[in-house]
Amino acid sequence: AQSVTQPDIHITVSEGASLELRCNYSYGATPYLFWYVQSPGQGLQLLLKYFSGDTLVQGIKGFEAEFKRSQSSFNLRKPSVHWSDAAEYFCAALNRDDKIIFGKGTRLHILP
Amino acid sequence: DAGVIQSPRHEVTEMGQEVTLRCKPISGHDYLFWYRQTMMRGLELLIYFNNNVPIDDSGMPEDRFSAKMPNASFSTLKIQPSEPRDSAVYFCASSGRGRIGRSYEQYFGPGTRLTVT
Fold first, then answer.
1. Could you tell me what percentage of chain A is helix, strand and coil, using 3-state DSSP and rounding each to the nearest 5?
2. CB-CB neighbors (< 8 A) of A44 in chain B
3. pLDDT exceeds 80 at position A90
4. C-beta separation of A34 from A100 below 8 A
5. B56:A41 CB<8 A
6. Which of A75, B21, B51, B66 has the largest count of CB atoms under 10 Å?
7. How many other β-carbons are positioned within 10 Å of the β-carbon of residue B114?
8. Is the separation of the CB atoms in A44 and A57 below 8 Å?
9. Does residue B81 have a cis peptide bond before it, meaning omega lies within 30 degrees of 0?
10. Is residue B24 within a helix (H) or strand (E), and if so which, with residue range?
């Protein structure tokens, strides 16, 4: 079955440190891939998306993600995190039925 | 634009009562989605509409759940009768068209936190 896997349930980093959140997908063809962020008590907000072309995509709030077909991965990165980045992050992919499938999410904690 | 609007933001009800959740999508968007989020199951797609027509309701958990979209600017998700295991946050999202066709970017509302006691 098509799936999106986020192996890390929680990640803790210090403010100012770099960040990488992992995401793996299981699809045959090149999928449409997304990263969303959810702050406490709010809905999900799209950070960035990949449909085709350049495998390194830039998003809002200083985030970027790299699509690696050989590893079936779409990891999210940020060179220096801010306390306001503490939130839950969801990787998602469009499946063959034209529905977006979300991963279980990774909760990011920031140490001062 | 005001974004996707959901009401109420919080709902507390007793088991067996009917619950109606409301959603106003972003003007001009022709896709509308209802999701449920719980700690155990994560974010689940319940149903989605295109041009007010239900396209896929395979995620609706039981016959107690129903959804309607009488026009392009309003949708409801109803649970009748409600049960404690329905307690969750329910999100509505909408998406529209990009320059070359369907845009798959979904815009989420703030959610309705439902508690059934």
1. 10, 50, 40
2. 43, 91, 93, 106, 108
3. yes
4. yes
5. no
6. B21
7. 21
8. no
9. yes
10. strand B19-24
pLDDT band at A65 (very low <50, low <70, confident <90, very high): very high
Question: Which of A94, A102, A104 has its CB closest to that of B104?
Answer: A94
Beta bridge partners of A56: A66
Do B104 and A44 lie within an 8 Å CB cutoff?
no
pLDDT score, position A28 = 62
Q: Which residues of B touch A49 (CB under 8 A)?
A: 104-105
pLDDT, one tens digit per residue, over B23-42 is 999 999 999 999 999 988 88
Using one digit for the tens of pLDDT, what is the confidence trace for B55-96?
Answer: 999 999 889 999 999 999 999 999 999 999 999 999 999 998
Average pLDDT score, chain B: 93
CB-nearest partner of A42 from B45, B48, B110: B110
Sequence-distant (≥ 6) Cβ neighbours of residue A24 within 8 angstroms: A4, A5, A7, A71, A72, A73, A74
From residue A16, how far is each of A36, A79, A88, A108, A111 by CA, in Å?
21, 8, 18, 14, 9
The bridge status of strand A10-14 relative to strand A106-111 is parallel
Distance (Å, whole) CA B40 – CA B55? 26
